Amino acid sequence: MSLYGLIAAFAEPDALVRAASAMREKGYRRMDAFSPFEIRELETILEIRRTRLPWLVLAGGAAGAVLVYALMLYSVEIDYPVNVGGRPLHSWPPFAVIAFEAAILGAALAGFVGMLWANGLPRYHHPVFNAETFSYARGGKFYLLVETADPSFRKGVTKGQLTRLGAETVEEMEA
Amino acid sequence: MASATAPAERPPPVLRGRHDFPEISGRIAGVVLNGRLPRYFWAAFFLCFMLVLVFFYAITYLIAVGVGKLGIDMPVVWGTMISNFVWWIGIGHAGTLISAVLLLLRQPWRASINRFAEAMTLFAVAMAGLFPILHLGRPWFFYWLLPLPNTHMHWPQWRSPLVWDFVAISTYATVSLLFWFMGLLPDLAMLRDRAKTRGAQLFYGILAMGWRGSARHWARYRVVYYLMAALATPLVVSVHSIVSLDFTFAITPGYHSTIFPPYFVAGALLSGFAMVLTIAIPLRWAFSVEDLITLRHMDNAAKLMIAAGLIVAYGYASEAFFAWYSGEAWERTMMVQRAIGPYSTLFWIMLACNVGALQLLWFRRVRLNMPVLFAIAVIVNIGMWIERYVIVVSGPSRDFLPSAWGDQSLTWLDFGILFGSIGTFFALIFLFVRILPAITIFEVEELAEETGRAA
User: Fold this and answer.
1) What is the pTM for the complete model shown?
2) Is the predicted pLDDT of residue B11 greater than 70, yes or no?
3) CB B71 within 8 A of CB B255
């Protein structure tokens, strides 16, 4: 078993934010934070890039609309044209209704699947679950993880820094 | 915090008292994990389950013997199946409004009621979806509405509102399910980490998909969650507009009206908020979560009912006015017959419920009195069902030629299916409350953090 990183628990979200930004100033980059709800300040501290998922949602919506519209056109123009008193085969107003619903369906599916895929979920094993002190919910704690892969990582030094920043516990986490 | 010096006009606070995170998650998750529910909970569930059995029996009978056993008859060939459908789909809409529209408008008070409102949407849509299929006469051919390759070489009629309806309802059900499940994900992880038994750990663990609350995950989660809300908002408006087009595309007097789409959407919100209150008032009492689902929620939901109800009242007035203004004899006759004809009792009850009783909600004292508010919510639920029934039957029963006029009278099967569906809906709500957290834990914690900071 090799060491994956050090996980420090904080009692308050503010303490986690302060510790994360202090560790960043000390040069740490391979960090992650865990909290029972989103803490917006962490986005800049952890250099979380803006997600490109909205483009995927747009693509999903466009694909849904185009595919279903094409299906309707194929059915009325090519596969089974029915001439009703000379009315146009391509009646776009009703087709737009169905294409709209298909766009919403495609976009929502793309968003949901894309969110899971980008987050690497479902993933039932992760080193963080090996930590004794880590519980997503039980203690209402806020966690900061410093990975061993960080170039500035020195086990003893990093542990001391985290403790001085007010961590309640600092645990060595097995990979 | 409401202090003694606060002026009476100030709205009650969203959350009452101070809360810390373990307390919130412990209380909400405890309902699910400790599994000690009061005896009356199971007694009420048992009653609903009896109605589930009635529902199964009635559906089996309907399929085996045929739709002729319902009250429908020439010329009134649409009946309770259609009014049940419109009623249930309308009830679903308030859940989407609370979860999506109020999220986009950044109304923090939605946090403690959105979860069960979304569950309500799902179960209501599940009920609604059954009725058009059962009404087909040969329900086993319902898949003909799908564009499937088949040996008959036939395609769905894309220009028919019934096909739009099928597409809209199935999209709505799918998107509601995804949105609901996505909102559940962090709470399922919380239940996984709090569960004591191996079975519960596995059950919630598998559903939670390994969610661990990483800051990177949260960032993507929020963006997509807001996008889903932004998609659900136009969807919900389109769904009920399409439902109303099922009527307006026919030239039947009383169906053929351009006010229908907005009027139906407002009616959906009115009945939906009535159902939210019908569920929330007993729920907050039974589980003593009056400090999380507060009077502020009840007050706001009641105000939204008034707003939607006034649009519905405008719809009634507009229907009557345009029947007269059109100058067409059959439109005018239909409207007069609605008020004095065979269904006039129902018409006046509908007005008394949806326009009359609703006006009591103007009074703050009524909005904050839970038994009275509950009674009004139930009255509006009944009134909205009657509204749909009146719309469905009064047009075909009094159409163009007096020689073709006719009535329908309801049979035991109509009532068996209606009350069976109500029982099934509430049985599902009971199971949901037992198995999943009825209040969104992570959003309430976030709210408590924000209000704690502001205080």
Assistant:
1) 0.88
2) no
3) no
